[in-house]
Amino acid sequence: MAEVHHFTYGAFNPIAAYLLAFLGSFFGLLSAARARDARTRGRRNRWLLIAAFAIGGGAIWLMHFAAMLGFDVPSSPIRFDMPLTMASLVFAVLTVGIGLLIVGHGRRSLPKVIAAGVLTGGGVLAMHYTGMRGLHVAGEMSYDPALVVASVIIAVVASTVALWFAVSVRGWGPIGGAAAIMAVAVCGMHYTGMAAMSVRIDPAQTNIGGIRPLTMIVPITVITAATIVGVALSALQAMTEEEFTDGAGTPKRGVHAGHANPWSLKQASMAAARRPSPRPVPV
């Protein structure tokens, strides 16, 4: 078996991966909390979609590839298959989104959260092992079944806990604590799955297609920037609509002077015009 390194750049990759997992979980849970307060189904779905991108795209997918930048096989070059890498992103966002939609509507119940957690955990596993399938080396990769099973358990439990947090926690402190726990679980699942992998080098395999790991930084940065901008704009639009409209989507009255009823202003002016002027006070 070939020598495999998971921390090529020391503590940088696991720390960066944990921070991405924490931030994605934090913003995702904040969005889920806003979804619970939404008065219409459309607004709730919008906040849940934002949460899906934050958790699935940020806390899970970006964390995975930030950690993968520290992966190295000294006796072989490493390349990434771009279509499979993008497919892993779709798996992460789609399954997290489905899980959030399941638990985000209707009454909260433990069986529903568990069912959604199993579905979302399967999507997280599909993301991880699809991403690993897109990793090309000069040889063959194999996996330890016991550690694969451990990664499955961690993924399902972590997804279930994350969805429970999404429908229960409120406030900056509890959300921060929940995000810290979620980040530990996501990183634990990733490194457990990576520990299950071993590489057998094939000296005859010299042509390895794909993109170099450091080259992946460019498309990942572009995707991340576009996602952050899109999510931020969508969140700002949703917050603006909620501030200036009521639950039915009609403008609120009396919130801001600029949005006062023009007919009430006209009636007040006419009443003031009809009011008799006061008599002069004798000296």
Proportion of helical residues:
55-70%
Mean pLDDT: 81
Question: Radius of gyration from the CA trace?
Answer: 26 Å
Poorly predicted parts: 254-266
Strand order of the largest sheet: 1-2
Task: Give the structural class.
Answer: mainly alpha
Can you count the beta strands? Answer: 4
Distance between the termini: 111 Å
Helices, by number, come to 8
Strand count, sense and barrel status of the largest sheet are: 2 strands, antiparallel
- Oligomer classification: single chain
Broad shape: elongated
Summarize the structure in words:
There is one protein chain. With 283 residues, this protein is mainly alpha-helical. Helix content is 66%, strand content 5%. It has helices at residues 12-37, 41-68, 82-104, 110-133, 145-166, 172-195, 217-244, 262-274; strands spanning 79-80, 135-136, 139-143, 197-201. The strands form two sheets. The chain has a two-stranded antiparallel ribbon with strand order 1-2. It has a two-stranded antiparallel sheet with strand order 3-4. Helix 3 packs antiparallel against helix 4 (110-133). The longest helix is centred in the first third of the chain and has 28 residues, at 41-68. Residues 254-266 have low confidence and may be disordered.
